[in-house]
Design goal:
Mean pLDDT: 88
Low-confidence stretches: none
Strand order of the largest sheet: 4-5-6-7-13-12-11-10
Strand content: 25-35%
Helix content: 10-25%
Length: 178
């Protein structure tokens, strides 16, 4: 059974905060063999500059079976994120909880026992970005969704053609550690 633990302020599986881009790439390249992943193709790396003089940048590491995003400052990883694709092949855990198989609302309540949580919209249940600063964890989903929206007639009318797809957003898509 594959398990990739998320350790607050440390990292995600073999990817650790403080690593250089070369060290992260080496760790990412080991995951397919260690997890016995199907051939997802070669790992692609893309880079986005964020700050002055290239001191801060984000690199994405992806193939057909996984996606990692790492923010670097002064060539050292300061935030590491993984998306939900790997849940098909194992467990991504935080405090022994599988973060991509627990509904977003339940995961936020669970994490509040370790750290207060801030979120990006007025309605906590309908936010897309959540941050637990004390433990350095960030959670993200593309669209806000909660079952309470199903009783909103206007929402149901607007979303009628895609309502089945919206259930995907009951779960987080990306989790990051700082």
């Amino acid at each position: 059974m594959n398990i990739m633990p998320i350790v607050p302020h440390v990292g995600i599986g073999p990817l650790k905060l403080g690593m250089t881009p070369d060290q992260i790439l080496d760790a990412v390249n080991q995951i397919p063999a260690e997890w016995n992943l199907p051939d997802g193709g070669e790992v692609e790396v893309s880079r986005d500059l964020q700050g002055p003089q290239d001191e801060t940048f984000i690199q994405r590491y992806m193939n057909n079976t996984f996606f990692f995003m790492v923010e670097y400052r002064d060539e050292k990883a300061v935030e590491i994120a993984v998306d939900y694709q790997l849940r098909e092949y194992g467990f991504i855990t935080l405090f022994d909880t599988d973060v991509f198989k627990v509904p977003a609302e339940q995961l936020v309540v669970f994490l509040k026992q370790y750290s207060p949580c801030s979120y990006d919209l007025d309605d906590e249940q309908l936010s897309t970005n959540y941050e637990s600063h004390d433990i350095g964890i960030r959670l993200w989903r593309e669209e806000p969704f909660h079952l309470k929206l199903l009783s909103d007639e206007e929402y149901m009318k607007d979303m009628a053609l895609v309502i089945d797809e919206m259930f995907h957003y009951l779960y987080f898509e990306i989790i990051g550690v700082r």
